[in-house]
Design goal:
alpha/beta, 3-stranded antiparallel sheet, 14 helices, 43% helix, globular
Length: 378
């Protein structure tokens, strides 16, 4: 009997199962406490109308090629011009996903002799981009601006002469806490560094007109921001915003951009409409922040700390117990997912509770009651 060519893959999956870490796809059922659809736009009437209007205008569902061939469409250009104005940057570039944008950025922009100093909890897409890139890379303690400063200073003393790149998220997807952006910007200025801020979970929720947490830094020659469109904006894709040279360099040197089919022109249109909706209806974000406060009050009664954002982690620690509690909540009608390593550090398995406009105070009250029961019984 021959050995299956996938026997090593089977062993790996078995090992994951033994450690309570094997993943499986699950349908979405129950009240939404798991999605990133923070403003409930994904299935909204407003975006449905925008989609119908785009179809009525005859916008194509597919681009037919890469942007450098025939795939470039006026809707891509219109979205990018609109996004640059909206986020206060010199230019913007549209990608099909946030993962693709992060990977392209870190694979392309930092050069040989540069150093990327990234928060230890930065997203996997940034790690994958850095692996493809030419620059050195080192992690810094989470949300510790002084650690970034010290690492760059040591690198300079050791002969580092390239450009330092500081890579962080403005709002972390598994902890719900915020980066000290003003302090990090000061570090970047002090060391002639570039600050890269992934605004994935802040876009649409924070800042005037949903412009994100980095908006307070203003337009800067050494700032790049990434705004994903598949979370609070309810669509898909991502917008990389910054100096015009960033856009131009990626268009010329960014292999993930050059050799990928362009996003759908219809999607580009839809994202532009989503930006308008968020800007013109600030009451959506206001309602969300009210629900966040309500949830924090209910969870505080259970002795659970607040994160200060719409992402509320309940750290359990043990993988198996985490998944039992998640299963109990799902059985009770609440879509709360368990998150295990390597998505989060070892020993910090957790429930990731997301507050969105897809639920209201009654659902939050019922979920926290079910959570108390599940934690007591697991």
């Amino acid at each position: 009997m021959t050995i299956s060519p996938f026997h090593t893959h089977r062993k790996d999956l078995d090992a994951l199962a033994a450690a309570d870490r094997r993943r499986a796809l699950a349908p979405r059922t129950g009240a939404d406490f798991a999605s990133n659809d923070y403003l409930a736009l994904a299935g909204s009437y407003a975006l449905g109308e925008a989609l119908a209007a785009g179809l009525q205008r005859g916008l194509p569902a597919g681009s037919g090629g890469s942007r450098l061939l025939r795939g470039n469409h006026e809707e891509h250009e219109a979205l990018e011009a609109h996004a640059a104005r909206h986020y206060g940057s010199e230019a913007a570039l549209f990608f099909p996903t946030g993962f693709a944008a992060n990977a392209a950025l870190f694979a392309t922009l930092p050069q040989r002799g540069d150093l990327v100093v990234h928060d230890e909890l930065i997203h996997a897409s940034a790690h994958d981009g850095m692996k493809l890139g030419r620059a050195g890379r080192v992690d810094a303690r989470h949300n510790d601006a002084q650690a970034f400063d010290d690492i760059i200073a040591r690198w300079r003393r050791g002969g580092g002469s390239g450009t330092p790149w500081i890579a962080v998220e403005s709002l972390y997807s598994m902890d719900g806490d915020r980066a000290p952006l003003a302090d990090l910007a000061a570090v970047a200025d002090r060391h002639d560094a570039v600050l890269v801020v992934d605004e994935a979970h802040a876009t649409g929720v924070y800042g005037p007109a949903g412009q994100g947490l980095a908006h307070d830094l203003g337009r800067r020659d050494n700032l790049i921001t990434l705004h994903t469109c598949g979370k609070a904006l309810g669509c898909e894709g991502a917008l990389l915003c910054g100096p015009a040279i960033v856009r131009d360099f990626i268009v010329n040197r960014g292999r993930p951009f050059i050799f990928s089919t362009a996003p759908s022109p219809l999607t580009a249109w839809l994202v532009r409409q989503a930006l308008e909706i968020v800007a013109n209806e600030p009451e959506r974000a206001a309602r969300l922040h009210g629900l966040i406060r309500h949830a924090e009050t209910r969870l505080a009664a259970l002795g659970l700390p607040a994160s200060g954002s719409q992402i509320i982690p309940v750290v359990i620690g043990d993988n198996g117990r985490t998944m039992r509690i998640a299963a109990a909540l799902q059985a009770a009608g609440f879509d709360v997912r368990g998150i295990r390593p390597p998505t989060v550090p070892e020993g910090s398995a957790r429930l990731r509770i997301a507050i969105t406009l897809n639920v209201g105070p009654r659902e939050i009250d019922a979920m926290t009651g079910a959570l108390a029961t599940a934690m007591a019984e697991a």
